Amino acid sequence: MLQTETRPASLVRAxxxxxxxxxxxxxxxVNALGSRLCAEVIRELEAAIADSxxxxxxxxxxxxxxxxxxxxxxxxxxxxPGSKNIRDVIATVEKSDKTFVAAIDGNxxxxxxxxxxxxxxxxxxxxxxxxxxEILLGLLPGAGGTQRLPRLLSARNPMNNGLAGVQMALDMxxxxxxxxxxQAKGMGILDDVALGAVERAVELAKTKAGTKxxxxxxTFIVLPSMTAxxxxxxxxxxxxxxAAHKLIDAVEAASEMEFKYGLAHExxxxxxxxxxxxxxxxxxxxxxxxxxxxxxxxxGDVKPxxxxxxxxxxxxxxxxxxxxxxxxxGIPVSVIDVNPEQVERGRANIASTYExxxxxxxxxxxxxxxxxxxxxxxxDYAAIADVDVVIExxxxxxxxxxxxxxxxxxxLKPGAILASNTSxxxxxxxxSMTSRPGQVVGLHFFAPANIMQLLEIVRGKxxxxxxxxxxxxxxxxxxxxxxxxxxxxxxxxNRMLFDYIREANFLLEEGAxxxxxxxxxxxxxxxxxxxxxxxxSGIDVFYKISLEAPKAPYRTSEIAxxxxxxxxxxxxxxxxxxxxxxxxREPVEDPGVNDLIAAESKRLGIKRRRIKxxxxxxxxIYALINEGARIIEDGIAQxxxxxxxxYLNGYGFPxxxxxxxxxxxxxxxxxxxxxxxxxxxxxxxxLGVWTPAPLLARLAHQGQTFSAFKGQPK
Length: 714
Ligand code: T1G
What we know:
Elements: E1 12-17, E2 20-25, H1 35-50, E3 56-61, H2 86-95, E4 99-104, E5 107-109, H3 111-118, E6 121-124, E7 129-131, H4 145-156, H5 163-175, E8 178-180, H6 181-187, E9 192-193, H7 197-208, H8 224-233, H9 242-256, H10 259-274, H11 277-291, E10 310-313, H12 317-328, E11 333-336, H13 340-359, H14 365-373, E12 375-378, E13 389-392, H15 398-411, E14 417-420, H16 427-431, E15 440-445, E16 454-459, H17 465-477, E17 481-486, H18 493-510, H19 514-524, H20 530-537, H21 539-548, H22 559-565, H23 591-604, H24 613-633, H25 640-650, H26 660-667, H27 669-681, H28 687-690, H29 694-702
Parallel strand pairs: 2-3, 3-4, 4-6, 5-7, 6-9, 10-11, 10-13, 11-12, 13-14, 14-15, 16-17
Antiparallel strand pairs: 1-2, 7-8, 15-16
Bound molecules: (2S,3S)-3-hydroxy-2-methylbutanoyl-COA.
(2S,3S)-3-hydroxy-2-methylbutanoyl-COA binds next to strand 5, helix 3 and helix 11.
């Protein structure tokens, strides 16, 4: 019987036109330059280089782009010995005397642009985009980008001895931003832009065959003041700035060292970074974001409904913020509010927000005008009868929300989706007021809605797959990170936050001060601590939410309630846990509050003690992790990386730590469980809170991680 050997399809297409060998990268979805693709490219390259009939070589990409760069999957573990990578491909090019042209159609990012920079010439199509975004992955361009880009831009932008070009290169790499075809041509990265990049590249290769324009031979200077300034503008290494500082060092080395030594130095720095915590955290988050829209167990291929218009009920700060989100995405939106003063305040909020953005040069005046006009204020439900989606953003009271849902159900067309911006309340209860529970969903925006990236998409027990898919697609269109959550009090973010805040208050009772606790959490990497956050969101808001919350099976502190009773609501009243002088946002310690706390300790019979920052961080972060584990177990979160994205995009968890669940994985679940048990063993500790969640205990026992756990969502 004839044996047919099925050889995996080649990832490189090779063809020759008039002596020009065109090597097309073809590894869907993004031609990621992983070890297999690199090995195949090298094989094709060596064949072309050895072929005397080949006068020049053109690189191109299939699947609508050049390439998304190195395969990021391969950075999650050390590469197998002997495996090829983009550096090996580039070394093969650099060694050859042939002429090389890169034909860039669509994206050429990271290692893909580094390959193009190693070529003699680069041609882009009109939709070409080039960039070295490695810093967004906690890395630096590790295949010559830090050595070649400053050389090229310094040569192409010779003003001020080429220093302008070097600054461009530094900025581009430190921001991780990509450039479109026009910008890239203007900077000198692309030698030409044409409708058909491959055709133009072949033409150029023919005329340039036998010539060389290797960037590696260029030299450039960089002033110590420039790199010193650059170091000064990025965060400290231990606060998320590790990759940036090493990147600047690599560029400095590029100006001082011979090319091959600079390259070796860049490689050393890259190897240090790729194994670092911040890089592994960034790579975790890269894939976490790509997992977001994937909802397990959907019945078949459910298509999202089209959203052509929207409405928001309530012209308060959240309501108008949400309206601006829709206007910014070009979706016509109406805001309905029966209170004329509130409507005026809402209008003013929108106008001042866009004026501010124009002043800061973030948007043009005509865009601001179009967006402001994109928000209509109406006085009754009949005016929004035809919208595709409505978001209720009224006062956080179940009674009020149920009345609104009943009214919306009557007024809106049958196909419309009814959503609530509630931050804690039961979506099913609101849905029960309608004839369309399948079209009811939670869309929980975070304040300020037009700034914060996070959107919790709350799935009720009757929410249909179509409504859910429509909501996740809408989140992408609104440029939000749409995280699907089950319907439980506080959903994902706030449910964990209650435990975090509760533990912070217990630490106050036991001897710490608000300033000390916030200081410790800021040192951990949060932009503000639990008490600065309480004062910003409003102690009254937390207090009222706690009244609606189901009775907790454990003790909670009463310190916030004491402050509420004294009318200390936080920044809005100029005092809360801290004092805010003359409307400033800087928290000032208030000895009166420390006295109030000490009195509370006395009332509870708690002997105050000196508490180390380490204990503060441990108890606050581990409270988050343990509750996070319960949330995964309850199926409220689909995966642990969703929780990480919630905490990064909604609660300021430091990105370079990857989120609470990733932080736990990095720490080691075994150690996390041991610490939880040691906290539980302390006198006065609440076992209900500190007993490790069953999932956490099980994974720790099995030597597993949260990231690897693919539990069943409810
Ligand atoms: N490696 C592996 N997988 C990748 C990938 C990559 N570089 N880029 C994308 N994917 C996967 C992604 O996970 C998703 O998979 C699918 O492709 C579509 O992606 C040595 C060190 C290219 C602009 O940082 O910015 O080169 O979810 O949903 O919106 O110096 O992807 O379908 O299973 O994002 O059309 C540097 C990263 C690497 C670019 C396309 N490169 N990628 O956007 O699709 S480090 C980057 C992107 C490097 C060298 C260094 C975007 C895109 P799945 P997608 P998209």
